[in-house]
Design brief:
Layout: H1 3-34, H2 58-93, H3 101-136
Helix pairs in contact: 1-3, 2-3
Length: about 140
């Protein structure tokens, strides 16, 4: 397992921890305070310490580029769904005519960042898995 895969596993684990932490905290402290669970994604800051100085070849660069593209597309989709979902919940279910800006920003930006990191990491793991299978065949 190379360093990029180790970093990807760290991001997948912290992404899952964020989602579980948020869902566990919402009933106890409410949706605003539960966003503190997204701080667990900050564990990815330690990813820079994994595999420093490791050589990168063209295949690794191609995998990173494809994974970043997949993450960006998923992040954009999460941002759009976050905006429209927040609006739909506030307008249709709660009967409000306005959405607080801080609510919209918090939900959409945090979710987009976590979705980008999570999908990027999953794509890295899948793409490296495909290359390993192709080399062994």
């Amino acid at each position: 397992m190379n360093a990029e895969q180790k970093r990807a596993w760290l991001a997948v684990g912290s992404g899952i921890a964020c989602a579980i932490g948020y869902l566990v905290l919402v009933p106890f402290v409410g949706p605003w305070a539960a966003t503190a669970a997204f701080a667990l994604f900050g564990l990815n800051g330690f990813a820079a310490l994994i595999g420093r100085g490791e050589q990168v070849d063209e295949r690794d660069k191609m995998i990173r580029r494809r994974a970043a593209h997949a993450g960006a597309l998923a992040s954009h989709l999460a941002f759009i769904l976050g905006c429209m979902g927040t609006w739909f919940i506030a307008f249709a279910w709660m009967g409000r005519k306005e959405i607080p800006v801080h609510l919209l920003g918090t939900i959409t930006v945090l979710c987009s960042v976590v979705v980008f990191g999570f999908v990027y990491s999953l794509a890295v793991l899948v793409l490296y898995g495909r290359h390993v299978e192709g080399e062994n065949a």
